[in-house]
Structure formats: structure tokens, C-alpha cells
Amino acid sequence: MFFYAPLEAEQGFLQKIFYVHVPLAIVALCGFVLGGLLAIQHLRTRDSRWDMRSYVVIHMSLIFAVGTLITGSIWAKGSWGHWWVWSEPTLVSFLIIFLLYATYQPLRFAIEDPERQARYASVFAITAGAFVPLNYMAVNLSTAYVHPRVFGSTSNLPGSMALTLLVSLVAMALLFATLCKYELTAKHARGQLRALRRRLTEEPTPRTRSAAPSLSEVS
Amino acid sequence: MSAATDEAPVPTDVAAEHAARTQRPPPGFARTVATLLRKELLVELRTLESVPGMSLFAVTVFVIFHFALNRSGVNGDEASGILWVTLLLAAMLGINRLFVADAEEGGFDGFLLAPVDRSALLVAKALALLSYLVVLELVAVPAFALLLLEPSLGPALPDLPGVLLLGDLGIALIGTLVAAIAVRTRARDLLGPLLALPLLVPVVIGGARATAPLLTLSHQTGPSLRWPLELALYDLVFGLIAYAVFDFLLED
Amino acid sequence: MRPPGDGWRVGVDLPALELEDLTRLYGEREALAGVSLSLQPGQTLVVLGPNGAGKTTLLRVLATLLRPHSGEVRVLGHGLPDEAWAVRGRVGLLGHEPLLYRELTASENLRFHARLHGVGMERVGELLEAVGMANRTEEPVRTLSRGMVQRVATARALLHDPELLLLDEPRANLDPAGAELVEPLIGAKSGRTRVVCSHNPEADLDEADLVLGLRSGRPAMLANPAALTGTAIKDLYG
Predict the structure, then answer these.
(1) Residue B221 contacts C where some CB pair is shorter than 8 Å
(2) Of A205, B156, B225, C156, which alpha carbon lies 20 to 30 A from C205's?
(3) What are the tens digits of pLDDT across the range C151-209?
(4) Could you give the CA distance from residue A38 to residue A190 in angstroms, rounded to a whole number?
(5) Mutant choice from C25, C26, C28 vs A, greatest count of A C-beta within 10 A
(6) Closest Cα to residue C58, out of C207, C237, C205, C196?
(7) What value does the mean pLDDT of chain A take?
(8) Which residues of B have a CB under 8 Å from any CB of A?
(9) Residues of chain A numbered 126-165 and touching chain B (CB < 8 Å)
(10) pLDDT beyond 70 at B15
(11) Could you write out the DSSP letters of every residue in chain B?
């Protein structure tokens, strides 16, 4: 990635951050929307596995969103001299989305009944998932375009840069999927361990309050 | 008929059977909304726990803004911004209180036991919140004009209520949904605003942008339709989402 | 008050309640598990058990407030949760909470519930008189004593003339006068099918047609009251 694309004339090496920042942003946005879709499945089927998937995807997207903000900030500092610019709709929109999804875990933690926790979390995930594109559009409308938007000029990108972008996008998406799968597997294993322990001792293991869903045997 | 949950939609023969057995038809949607709204307004009139507080809060915030900004008169974007931020924060107070009486006095169960469409609660509460916001604005906007606004309010008047109403609709819908989520959690007073404010950013964008040209010294006639349109669209989409998910918050 | 009659027959052969292996979880814990029974119209089921045994959960499932997680539940011939809508107007719940708004008067509260159920306003007056609260209808509920609140709550539960009554310790807060007034409405002679949760086995067993003992969510005993011995009950609580 770093060596393939030609150094962009104006911004030099710093512009490479672009190849990390943009895929992070796209994958995170898609992740949030995916979290909402998985939540719809949860409410439709009442199967807590969908809630688990929704939780993991949102959790991961939040991490990616923080990555987006950090890399975006670095890029802004390098390109325009400020750590934060209001004129970049992606960055602004992500800040709002981050603030919203940062309440996801506190919300879950604040509800003790596990079934209700999952249900309310799904309602939140659907609402927030629908909000993501709406918010992006609204912020776009309101931002004065002072600086050239890189995406607006994608068609002008030389082929090699566009290709690099595409490759890093795919790589980022794969990374996301792998991390999610990993976390899901870990949670699944933990759930099975608890179920085994419960069956052996015949007493329910006392659970501390948690923000994360766990799989129960009966959904 | 709770379309959103997995209860089967009521076939007409069940309703007829119900009516025959109990010798009365179950109340329709509009009547249910009217019943709930009437109860809401009655409780609010009796306790006066939302509207006076919200109004007083708004006026106090205007005073604080005067000292914080060290200005005696604002116009344009600043005026619009101060007005909308104040309205939003005052709305948070109302949102926090919206479902509290129901949660604490067992009102949810009473409603859930009735043979009515549960989405009626969403509509009724949103209408109630909307009416509180309108009353709030009847107090806050003149106060704002008196205390902080530099240009006179007159020329803004034909357009301003429309913009405010569109914004109020968004606040009411989002506020009701968020209030319903937050009320049955442990940190309800904190989670309410934290959930609502990001979701309300598009409302602020549309509302403030639409209001700014109305509050300038050189009052420009004919505000662009773009912002009210954005507001209206957002209200519509959010209304649909809220309607779709609300049932899942009530059931257990 | 209407005497029991055809309007209260669920159907010629249908039981009022049919539970098979009803299970309701709270996270990983079983709030209710494996509850099975059948109750005919007009009969009374008394549910006994220590605190936390699942009595209130059972009542709330039957009231359609909680959905069963597995097993079959048929109330008044309709399966839950799919046909919960059909059941709602025909079940009355009188639980620990009076479900009344404290700032509204008794009469305003009852009128609200009446409208929600599509019941005529004259029922409000009828019931307030029947529970002996006719002269206190215009005061906010928060000014009423516990016993009076319980009476108004009882009126609320009966407003829509339910076929099935779900009672959670219905006489707990009542003074003797109140208990007397309320007896014909919610007692065994009312003719309604009843499920009564009780902490007072001695007193309540007389009216039972069927007794269910719950312990940690599971049925520890399901029997005819005639067949019950004192030790069985003590074991349940012990």
C-alpha cells in the first residue's frame, strides 16, 4: 500500500493516511448499518444470537469509528494545519455518530433484565443505524465546501491511487470481518462454558451485571 | 393491531367475537390516542411538572447567555443558534419527565392490559410533548425577543412559527422514542439527553439554518425551502422508524 | 353486577386455562419452568409458594404482560403470545400495584381505564358504589388510605367485567369492611374463573378447586385441595 501508490504531489507522504482513513470510515459506517439490520433480525426472530452478532458488529464499528476520527484528525493536521476542521463532512458526521454509539454500551449496562437489555439495544441499533445515513446527508448539506473533498474527485484519481484505495478497502473489510468472527467465537465459547458449568453444579452461576449479551440456551 | 410485534394481526372475526362476548367493540386507534392524550394533559395540568419548568429554564438560559456572551443583542446565525440550543435543552427537561409518571405509578401495565393498539401510546405522548413545546415557545420566543434579539420579531413572524413547528415535530418524535428507551433504565436522566442530542443534530441543522435569515437586521424575504424541507423529511423518516420499533419497547 | 351466565362460558368444552410446560427465563435463571395445568371455567386455582417462587411471574404471563419463552399457554381458548390481543379485554389483573395515577381522582382514573377498554361510563359509578367508594370519588388517589386505594384498584380490575381474574394477594391491604364489600366481586361466589396467589394457605384453600405449589419456578405440587396434607404445604415453604 505505502509503496505502490505514487506520492501525491501536493501532500506527500501524509496523504497515505488517506488510504487508512477512508476505508476505516466506510467500513465503520457499513458496520453500523449492518448492526441495525442484524438487530431487525433479532426483533423478528427473538433469537438472541442475532443480538450477539449485532452487539459485536456495533462494538467493532465503534472502534473503527474512533480510528477514523484519529486518522482523520492526523490528516487534517497534516493537510490544513488544524487538528479539527468543521469543513470536512465525514469527520463531523463521524463525531456525531461516535457520540451516539458511545451510549450503546452504557445503555445496555443500565438495563438488568437480559432479555429487555437485548430488545432495547436492538431498538437503539435500528434507530441509530437508520440515523447514520440521514445524519451524513444532513451534515453534508450544512457544510461549506472550503477544502476539496477527496471523494468528490474520485473520478479524477489516477488509476493506481484508486486501485490502492480499493485494495485497502477490501483489506479493511476483511479485517473487520475477522475481528468480529473472532469476538463472536470467543463469546460463544464462553457461553458454552457457562452452560456446562451450570449443568454440572445445578445452580445458576451468579452473574454480575454486564453490558454484553450472552447466549442463553432457550432463546 | 401491533403490526411490529409477532402477534398475529387481528382478524375481523376475533374482534367480532370479542365484541359479541363482551358486548362492546374494542376502541379504535384515534379514540385510544384521544383517551391517552386527555389523561396526559390532565395529569400535566394537575401537577404542572413539565411546562412551567421548561419555560422558566429557557428564560434563565437566555439570561445566562447574555452574561456568557457579554452581548446585549444578537442577530442572524447567533440569534438563531441561541434560540435553538435553548429550546433543545429545555426540551430535554420535558423528555426526561415524559414517561416517569407511567413508570412509577404502574401506568404501563394498566395500558398494556387494555385491548388497544400500543402504538397509540407513541402518538399520544408525542402529541403531548409537542403541545408542551408549543407552549414553551409561546413563552420563550417573546422572552428571547425581549431580552436578546436585536432585530424586531415582527417581520419574522409569518415564517417563524412554521419552522418552529417542524422542528418541534422532530423533537417530539425523537424525544418520545428516547424517553421510552431511557425511562426503564437505571440512569434515565443521563441517558435521555445523551441519546437524544446526537439524534437531534439534523433537526438543529435544519431549524437553525432556516431561522437564521429570519432573524437578521436586514430581514431577507423569501427564505429558501431547502431547510424546512430537510426538517420535514427527517421528521417523516424518523416518525416511521419510531412507529415501527416502539411496540418492542413496551412488551416484555 | 351481572350474574354468571352464558356470557362467561369460554366455549362449550374449552378450559379457561391450559398450560403445558410453560417456561419463562430471566437471563439464564428459570423464573418459571415446566408448569402444566388445566383449569375449567368458573374454577379457582390457588398458587402457593415462597417469595421468588414465580407466582407473580405466572400471573403476569397469564395477563399477557410477559411472553412465555417456551411451552404452550392457552388462556380462554387463545394461545399466547400470538393471540394475546384477543385475551386482553377479558382478563382482569389485580396485583401489588394499584395501577392508578396518584394525581388523578378515583373517578378520573376509572374513567380513563373505562375508555381504554371501551366500557361505558355508567360502569364506573356502579363499581365505585359496589366497593363503597362512592363518596370519595373526587379526591386525588394520593390522599386515600391504602385500604381505599386497594378498593379502587379492585374496581379498576373489574371495570371490563373480565371472565378471568388474576389476583395477587387480593385481601392484603384491605380493612375488614373493604374485604366484605369486595368478596362478592372477586370471591369464589362471583362465578368468574380465578387464579389467586396466596401467602395464607389456611384461609385461601377453602375456595380452591386446584392448588399449585411453586418453588424456584418449578411446580412442586399440583393437587386437589382435598388431597393436600399440612406437611405438603410446610415442605413447600420450608
Answers:
(1) no
(2) C156
(3) 999 999 999 999 999 999 888 888 888 888 888 888 888 888 999 998 877 777 888 88
(4) 21
(5) C28
(6) C196
(7) 81
(8) 6, 177, 181, 184-188, 191, 194-195, 197-199, 201-202, 205-206, 209, 226, 230, 234, 237-238, 241-242, 244-245, 248-249, 252
(9) 126-128, 130-131, 134-135, 138-139, 141-142
(10) no
(11) --SSSSSPPPPHHHHHHHHHHHTSPPP-HHHHHHHHHHHHHHHHHHH--SHHHHHHHHHHHHHHHHHHHT-S-B-HHHHHHHHHHHHHHHHHHHHHHTTHHHHHTTHHHHHHTSSS-THHHHHHHHHHHHHHHHHHHHHHHHHHHHHTB-S-SGGGTTTHHHHHHHHHHHHHHHHHHHHHHHHTSTTHHHHHHHHHHHHHHHHHHHHHHHHGGGGSSSPPSS--SHHHHHHHHHHHHHHHHHHHHHHHHH--
**SS3 call for C214:** strand
Q: Which pLDDT does position C172 carry in this prediction?
A: 81
The confidence band for A201, taking pLDDT boundaries of 50, 70 and 90, is confident
C-alpha to C-alpha distance for A204 and B244, rounded to whole angstroms: 36
Question: Touching A: which chains, 3+ CB pairs < 8 A?
Answer: B, C
**Mean pLDDT for chain C?**
86
Contact C85 B106 (CB under 8 A): no
Q: How far B30 CA sits from the closest chain C CA (Å)?
A: 11
Residue type, C189: K
